[in-house]
Amino acid sequence: MTRRRYIEEKLRAVDAKIGDTIRIIKDGKGMEGVLMPHHEFSGDDIVTIKLENGYNIGVAVDRNTDIVLIKKQKMGIRKTKKIPFDPNKPTISIIGTGGTIACYVDYRTGAVHPATSAEELAFSVPEIFEICNVRAHVAFQMFSEDIDVSHWKKLARYVAKELNNGVHGVIIPHGTDTMGYTSAALSFMLRNLSGPVVLVGAQRSSDRPSSDAAQNLTAAATVASKSDIGEVVVVMHGDISDTFSTIHRGTKVRKFHTSRRDAFKTVNDIPLGKIEDGKIMFNVEYRKKTDGKVLVDDKMEEDVGIVYSYPGLRPEDIPEKKGVVLVGTGLGHVPNRVIPKIKQLIDNGSIIVMTSQCIFGRINMHVYSNGRDLIKAGVISGEDMLHETAFVKLMWALAHGKNREEIERLMKTNIAGEITERTRADTFI
Amino acid sequence: MTRRRYIEEKLRAVDAKIGDTIRIIKDGKGMEGVLMPHHEFSGDDIVTIKLENGYNIGVAVDRNTDIVLIKKQKMGIRKTKKIPFDPNKPTISIIGTGGTIACYVDYRTGAVHPATSAEELAFSVPEIFEICNVRAHVAFQMFSEDIDVSHWKKLARYVAKELNNGVHGVIIPHGTDTMGYTSAALSFMLRNLSGPVVLVGAQRSSDRPSSDAAQNLTAAATVASKSDIGEVVVVMHGDISDTFSTIHRGTKVRKFHTSRRDAFKTVNDIPLGKIEDGKIMFNVEYRKKTDGKVLVDDKMEEDVGIVYSYPGLRPEDIPEKKGVVLVGTGLGHVPNRVIPKIKQLIDNGSIIVMTSQCIFGRINMHVYSNGRDLIKAGVISGEDMLHETAFVKLMWALAHGKNREEIERLMKTNIAGEITERTRADTFI
What is the count of structural domains for chain B? Predict the structure, then answer.
């Protein structure tokens, strides 16, 4: 049994759950406090408790340590708190999906829970209630690396239902790892949006002093309740000094840093706008919300993959799938020796789209002979799309085009802001 | 027969080569000029000639057009020009590999050739002779997407030979697509450098007015001939207004734009320095050149691949190779459902290293359960390495470590500046 497992079983044996008050008895001495969640940066043998003076301490627990349950946490945010309603404020929906941002701090105990109920989700950032009324829902509770097409579909339907029920906008708290993929997917799946759809995340959980959860959620609430955007957008920190948040188009944004709060950047375009001091300022034109009914168009072909090119890439490294997004080098190249395999896959019906490892800039396979050979083989230019967006779009296009020509036409047509006709000079790092 | 092929055969029939003077006769009218290379942006049916007044014109050629050879180009740069030698200047070696930068402009005809001889290579930017003496060599002539391990080995040996023969430094003009991979490979292969090894490229060929070839090469010559660097570096445009060039550490640099001249950026560190007005300014510490003999340590395991994670990634998408660099999401995650396959591959002897799609920041698999499961399965953290560098290093480490423990130790040890112990706060986009 691992040490962590041993501790978990020891806590379970006395029915001690996070938020409960326990006493840890070690070497004849006892320490009493509220059981806190195990923190990633603590050792496996550590149990963290919040003392009455408010400090958290970690205690190493071994076979000679006793744990006693002193009292159970008083449960029931749901019972003691009610989501407020102000008839003069717009109403939005929050649809929870999990991720760091959906971790809920119990303000009484300081403990961090995943928000598994709608009310907990809403109360995870009570500041929102200053801005708007909130309907809260939990669609699912996932770390974002496990979110896939089935979740995108569920979300798209949820969003449409909420907007068609009359809310002003929708917020989707989401793990940041794959938020760009989900925002792109919803951009293709949702048509005729009658309000903003705002994905938002946090790079640091709410139990850390540097957490970006509160600012991101209030900025998202501002966009969802006060803007006339009819697009799927991502709202995240614009800088690390908490000055402003940035509104990114859902098809043009990716995560560029593993830990910084300003990790999200718009690529090959400038961001739609920003939120500063509660005010929204726009940089560019955007699609306005409509008065009609939101439509869901969520047919997707799942047999699509991403293949990253590298020196020595071999023909067998390119799999037989209905769709493949190649992440080539430079303007859109791969080693010459894999081109016959690519041609063979295309001749057998695969759709292959070229994007670039450079991330910034545009594919141009007309410049060098390698690119021209790829065009001849039938590889489709991903233009200036992010490879993540091209991957999602290819799933969508394969399910919507009846034949190769139609799929190619869809891939080359700007559907949801994913292709900019001319790349602006001021959109690089 | 394609139109282009038709034109090529028509030119071949009259023995008209680039640089020769031809007459194109169409609709009874004739135009005379020097045959120019076919330009990527011209139509397939266009033949471009340089008129006597210096203007280039494109003429559409069809079956009713005649082409007549007027006179052959006078050959022999090699015969008419000699590389100058100034005993008061340091001597460097240029080792040509191909790519946009190695395209040679014949200043007499304006025609662009790949520099297939050492002298042509040297004369591709005669400005260099102001800075240093040049020994020129052509190692091979490749577009960089086709450069692989065998070429890296050839280059490493070439560099060592030249430095051990006493040149002050070495310049390697290289296609920009995979320059970062090659600079990383040479960084691991070369030990005890007695002078700077400078990779340099061009995003725009020398026949275009916006070409960056001249500035990049002169900056590279300055670094190669005047600095005391004992590392492999990349020198490229620092901005788009030709103000300065940047010196990047070979293991920390990647191409971030398909076409901009300032496409290369240092990741997770600040660049070593810059060259402005012919002067070198350093930002950080670097390894100084040694007085000893350069050693080549170029054993590489070629059975290594890069796998880019995406929503819906399946176990069968992760191939059985001796080494795999995963490009995961965020702090280093992949969909949970592929973890058993990863564990199985590792149990069967594969070495699997985690890097991030974020590119910036550091892997930390201790934070979330997905990462902890990956650590348990035996996945090695790529720390803050670029995935391109981790890929090259894994080839090198697999060939140098006797067992799993040694390979893991090598991957986690900073060998050539590829891992920074603490990421600086000022190194993001």
Answer: 3
